[in-house]
């Protein structure tokens, strides 16, 4: 087992570290959300409309596949150097994106930016585990959850404001001062790992995991949108993902220092929190994707105003995340938080599923508030519980697992919900839509060109087609609610160095693995 990375910090520097971590998380989350409202302007200047979705997919794909790799590297070589590398790569990708003179160049630059962005999320949250005891991490993770909530709404708003008042290049250049500030603070206050020992790097595991996640994310991102789910392209990607996963499991079971240790999946906390995060990720990304579409098309509001109307969701997410963090630190317990929040999420999504064209805005705001409150505690609770339940040498890779499964859930959610919506819309509209138009062509300009009677029919069909989307999200949230009851709660440790519960679980898992018998986790 590799010696754990233990960057220590003086008490006076801990607030600076937490501030720098918050900035890096803000960078990573804005990297995902700020581009959406600027895409039409970028395409208008660079051309390449057919490649528009790849600007988003490139970042999502690269940030997802590197998450567990960064987690493992942070465990092996220390958080400081790995986090600094991630920031530099992210800023390099942002600078290249600003310099792009074609869509192909921009897509490549976004992929590079994602290679850094995936590390920002994972390693930054793992840094907290090195400087804050588990009992106190709840409050910090609650703050980080608030950062994600802010970026959900602030990203599209900021992107829209920038392209309206300046050039689109500034949506990337704005990352530079924030990233440099975080880089300087981390360099000054976070100490490097003093242990200099040799490691056996699992190169084959890295390669197989990267290829597997790439095939999986591409299949879920392109399926039902660019290619039909039954097309040869998607079937080939899914088949490749399954085969690569089998090969990865075979290699990891024999690796000296595996990139994603298989005994983690015998850890009850790791397994349940990631399954819950996966399902809530589906519901979250699906809601965030389709709510603005509903507001812009069914309600007729502008893109900027649709982002503003998401504020209730942000308020719910921030408030619930912050409150859950406070309660975790105050009580040392956490299992009841995802139980309550996923139940609230189910209610909010069912209410959204019953929206009509004449549903008052204030009611929609309440529904979105409930959805935000249901999402908020899940991520912060999952990260804190996981970090408390695994031995220190695996904190980084376990934290990466939380990010990985949430993002994969989001990718699948957007793809599946998009297919459900497209199918429902097509069946309700029949031959009313212009020939050759699909979901990608469904926009305000097309609606305005329709006769008044036809426009009303289309809008009603649109609202009805969204109902099964939110019902499906509600089913995912309900499954998450059920899974929480299988979570074994370990009291949050109050000290930084000695975490007996995690060590006992690690010893039990290791003994079971050595004996070749299944662990009863």
From TrEMBL:
Query: Where, by residue number, does the polypeptide cross the bilayer?
Result: 12-31, 51-70, 82-108, 114-132, 144-163, 169-191, 203-228, 234-251, 271-295, 307-327, 334-352, 364-383, 404-426, 469-487
User: What's its membrane topology?
Assistant: Multi-pass membrane protein
- What residue stretches are annotated with the Major facilitator superfamily (MFS) profile domain? 17-492
Gene3D superfamilies listed in its UniProt record: MFS general substrate transporter like domains, Multidrug resistance protein D
Q: What is this protein called?
A: MDR family MFS transporter
Q: Which PANTHER family match?
A: COMD, MAJOR FACILITATOR SUPERFAMILY
Keywords recorded for this protein, A-Z: Membrane, Transmembrane, Transmembrane helix
- List the subcellular locations: Membrane
Q: Name one Pfam family in it.
A: MFS_1
Q: Which SUPFAM superfamilies has this protein been placed in?
A: MFS general substrate transporter
